[in-house]
Amino acid sequence: MRKGDCLTSREKRFCSYYVSSGNSKEAAACAGYGDPEKHGAALLARDDINSEIERLYGARTRNYRQQARAGYERLAFGNVSDAVRLMFSDNPDAEELAGYDLFNVAEIKRPKDGALEIKFFDRIKALEKLESTDQDEGKNVSDFYTALMGGLRRSDDQ
């Protein structure tokens, strides 16, 4: 089953399911283990399993950050022409609406008078969030560089 430090495909599935659910019993059951409660606890006690789970959490976190950044970019720089087209169209059908890109739309209302009100997400707030994210990333790089240089100075002193 196990070859050295390599995880089996079932162990990798367990790790993946665990990262998604946070529940070792459920992850073991989804990965195909009999007696999932016993196997889930045993798997979590292993260092190689925990290393893989940490690696997957890191990848997932990076992916979420990238998705969030892409979303803020769409809000800040996205096109609103489909929302304007919607405002001027009379009773669009579901098929037509499915083709519209309404990502920047926060709210749509049709008051009693029949007019259409469209509220957009705040582009300035999206830009501010992008700027703060860039500063945070730069700070992390700067902190890493400072720590690295401090370590090099200490090793030169010895």
Short description:
The chain has 158 residues and is mainly alpha-helical. It contains 7 helices and 2 strands.
Strand runs, count: 2
Percent range of helical residues: 55-70%
Provide a count of the helices. Answer: 7
Provide the residue-averaged pLDDT: 86
Terminus-to-terminus distance = 47 Å
CATH topology of the domain at 1-68: Arc Repressor Mutant, subunit A
**Category from helices, strands and their pairing:** mainly alpha
Largest sheet: 2 strands, antiparallel
Instruction: Output the radius of gyration.
Output: 25 Å
- Label the CATH architecture of the domain at 1-68: Orthogonal Bundle
* Dominant shape: flat
Share of β-strand residues:
5-15%
Strand order of the largest sheet: 1-2
Extract low-pLDDT stretches. Answer: none
Q: From N to C, what is the helix and strand string?
A: HHHHHHEEH
CATH class of the domain at 1-68: Mainly Alpha
Key phrases:
158 residues; mainly alpha; Arc Repressor Mutant, subunit A; two-stranded antiparallel sheet; 7 helices
Description:
The protein is mainly alpha-helical and 158 residues long. It has a domain at 1-68: Arc Repressor Mutant, subunit A (Orthogonal Bundle). Helices cover 69% and strands 6% of the residues. The protein contains seven helices and two strands. The protein has helices spanning 9-21, 24-31, 36-44, 47-77, 81-88, 94-98, 123-157, and strands at 105-109, 117-120. A two-stranded antiparallel ribbon has the order 1-2. A hairpin with a 7-residue loop joins strand 1 (105-109) and strand 2. Helix 1 crosses helix 4 and helix 4 crosses helix 7 (123-157). The model has no long low-confidence stretch (mean pLDDT 86).
